[in-house]
Design the sequence.
């Protein structure tokens, strides 16, 4: 078209989302790592693996599975009633469990007939587990048709227990420790594999093998989470902090949404950063002091210092940091976020934020994108499948945005609040979340709290030279403090593009 395209961040989501992207990725992998670094064909792995294959009335599919297991020297038990050459066939899980030599301390690999194990898979599992106390290891997978054509890879996150609750991305692509005494837990359960995964995952963190080791016929669908009920018993007091400057129209929409919010113990602190528009000043003066506390904050815009100052005078047990350009869609959004913030292992909780046109602006933050951090799934429609529906499922993430962030006040104070010196405007939320994560309070993305965010409408964008230099300094501080130019986000994947906010194949 006669135009010059310079930005990898523009090209990556276009190329990576192409239907041909995975084919190209596979070609490159074949050149870089022939046969998936498989061991010699005669090598017998030291790891004792027993595969339990749930049979189908499809001998061709079953044969493909059994051939792949035989090549890996895996002991195999088939659940079914057909005769299978070279494999033990039993009619039920009861007989299968009784026939396993548990005294040899085996690993169990449940598979569905038609699923194929990649060459060298057992050796790669063994290498990943050799120094780990984990009782569960899982790998990436893709779909394979009857002609052996591969498509739709699932490059998975490291262990994410909350995501697993809503989308089982592990069962059928894993090996796990089990024992004879586990059987009563499985009796009569059609989801016995998931039960085993849940039990094995309760101890040491499961190991994620970042290789496509399983080729599947089909995958499970998400278990869509219901909207949570209201908090019961004690409602912790919440202080909502809303920084603002001019734009009374935006602020009024935000505060009207807070008035309509269904939460019984709410303090609202509006922090005015040098508004000079007469309409804005008149609106601030009109606010009912019994309902709203207006705090005047003079000087250059410093998001970190504004929120730290307001947090210091806040009375709530829980803080809700809220941009003035956010509008609420449902009255229970805050109740939902507060419930998650009260969990022992959770730090900052972020909502699903939409642009006014309905597309996603924020669905968690991914580290390492273009060397810093970026909003996951940005510009995706909430109704689209996206990347395995991740944008619509509650899950742990590395960070969330402070445009709408809920955190227990004592945890915010325990890490020293926002860093005012290094992150005056950008990345202060990422830095806060990472410090909370370090203390064992993981960031949490809650899509059932859905709001509209008119991004940076009142403050504007960083397009002048001074603002651009300030942003560059904050990006450099993020890289220096957290190595975001080298890190692989544990909830992302090295085979997903580091140049795209959308989860697409890395080419």
Sequence:
């Amino acid at each position: 078209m006669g135009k010059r395209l310079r930005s990898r961040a523009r090209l990556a989501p276009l190329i990576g989302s192409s239907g041909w992207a995975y084919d190209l990725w596979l070609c490159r992998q074949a050149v870089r790592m022939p046969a998936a670094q498989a061991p010699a064909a005669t090598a017998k792995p030291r790891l004792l693996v027993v595969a339990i294959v749930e049979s189908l009335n499809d001998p061709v599919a079953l044969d493909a599975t059994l051939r792949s297991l035989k090549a890996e020297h895996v002991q195999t038990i088939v659940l079914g009633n057909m005769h299978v050459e070279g494999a033990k066939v039993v009619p039920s899980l009861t007989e299968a469990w009784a026939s396993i030599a548990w005294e040899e301390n085996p690993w169990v690999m449940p598979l569905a007939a038609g699923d194929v194990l990649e060459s060298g898979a057992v050796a790669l599992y063994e290498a990943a587990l050799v120094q780990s106390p984990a009782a569960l290891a899982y790998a990436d997978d893709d779909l394979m048709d009857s002609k052996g054509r591969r498509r739709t890879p699932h490059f998975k996150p490291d262990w994410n227990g909350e995501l697993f609750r809503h989308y089982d991305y592990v069962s059928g692509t894993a090996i796990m420790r089990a024992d004879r005494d586990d059987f009563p837990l499985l009796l009569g359960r059609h989801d016995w594999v998931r039960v085993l995964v849940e039990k094995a995952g309760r101890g040491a963190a499961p190991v994620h093998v970042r290789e496509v080791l399983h080729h599947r016929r089909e995958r499970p669908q998400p278990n869509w989470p219901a909207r949570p009920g209201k908090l019961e018993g004690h409602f912790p007091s919440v202080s909502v902090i809303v920084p603002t400057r001019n734009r009374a129209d935006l602020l009024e929409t935000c505060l009207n949404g807070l008035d309509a919010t269904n939460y019984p113990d709410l303090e609202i602190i509006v922090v005015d950063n040098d508004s000079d528009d007469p309409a804005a000043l008149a609106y601030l003066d009109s606010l009912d002091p019994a309902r709203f506390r207006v705090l005047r904050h003079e000087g250059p815009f410093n998001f970190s210092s504004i929120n730290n100052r307001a947090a210091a005078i806040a009375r709530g047990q829980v803080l809700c940091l809220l941009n003035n350009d956010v509008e609420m869609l449902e009255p229970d959004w805050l109740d939902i976020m507060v419930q998650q913030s009260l969990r022992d292992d959770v730090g900052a909780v972020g909502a699903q934020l939409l642009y006014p046109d309905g597309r996603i602006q924020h669905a968690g933050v991914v580290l390492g994108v273009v060397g810093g951090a970026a909003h996951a799934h940005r510009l995706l429609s909430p109704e689209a499948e996206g990347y395995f529906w991740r944008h619509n499922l509650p899950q742990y993430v590395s960070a969330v945005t402070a445009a709408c962030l809920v955190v227990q006040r004592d945890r915010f104070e325990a890490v020293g609040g926002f860093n005012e010196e290094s992150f005056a405007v950008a990345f202060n939320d990422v830095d806060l979340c990472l410090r909370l994560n370090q203390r064992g309070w993981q960031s949490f993305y809650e899509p059932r709290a859905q709001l509209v965010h008119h991004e940076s409408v009142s403050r504007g964008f960083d397009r002048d030279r001074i603002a651009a230099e300030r942003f560059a300094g904050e990006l450099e501080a993020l890289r220096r403090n957290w190595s975001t130019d080298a890190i692989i986000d544990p909830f992302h994947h090295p085979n997903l593009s580091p140049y795209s906010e959308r989860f697409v194949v890395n080419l």
Remarks:
- DSSP finds 15 helices and 21 strands in the chain.
- Residues 394 and 446 are 5 Å apart (CA to CA).
- The first strand starts at residue 49 and ends at 54.
